[in-house]
Amino acid sequence: MKQLLIALAALLSFGAQAAELDDAMNKAGCMACHSKDKKIVGPSFKDIAAKYKGQDVVAKLSEKVRKGGAGSFGPVPMAPTGADKISDADLKAAVESILKS
């Protein structure tokens, strides 16, 4: 019973963390151009994960979010997203989560 309660607490904690991350990504404007599984303006998170599967690209993609970029998924440029929109810690967590999609 104790193990079940511990597992339940861990799942609830994970759910709260995921909700906080979704909130941070919404506030940063990520969801205006991206979605989990469909291309909007930018690629879906699923497509990003597939492109970079098996690569250590968290720092590279975090830098791309900060500076903006174009050409990786087509001609539409991605605007830069500053630390005033999403913290470094939340950005790193978001990129890691996207790569696990």
Strand-helix topology:
Blueprint: H1 2-28, H2 30-33, H3 45-51, H4 58-67, H5 88-99
Helix pairs in contact: 1-5, 4-5
What does this protein structure show overall?
59% of the residues lie in helices and 0% in strands. The mean pLDDT is 86. The protein has 101 residues and is mainly α. It has one domain: Cytochrome c-like domain (Cytochrome Bc1 Complex, Chain D, domain 2, Orthogonal Bundle), CATH 1.10.760.10. Helix 1 (2-28) packs across helix 5 and helix 4 (58-67) crosses helix 5 (88-99).
Report, as a whole number of angstroms, the end-to-end distance. 32 Å
CA gyration radius, whole angstroms: 15 Å
CATH homologous superfamily grouping: Cytochrome c-like domain
What kind of oligomer do you see? Answer: single chain
Which structural class best describes the helix and strand composition? mainly alpha
The CATH architecture category equals Orthogonal Bundle
The helix/strand order is HHHHH
What is the mean predicted local confidence, pLDDT?
86
Low-confidence stretches: none
Secondary structure tally, helices: 5
Return the CATH class.
Mainly Alpha
CATH topology: Cytochrome Bc1 Complex, Chain D, domain 2
Could you give a short account of the major beta sheet?
none
Strand segment tally: 0
Percent in helix: 55-70%
**β-strand amount:** under 5%
Domain Cytochrome c: 10-101
Protein name: Cytochrome C
Signal peptide: 1-18
Pfam family, one: Cytochrom_C
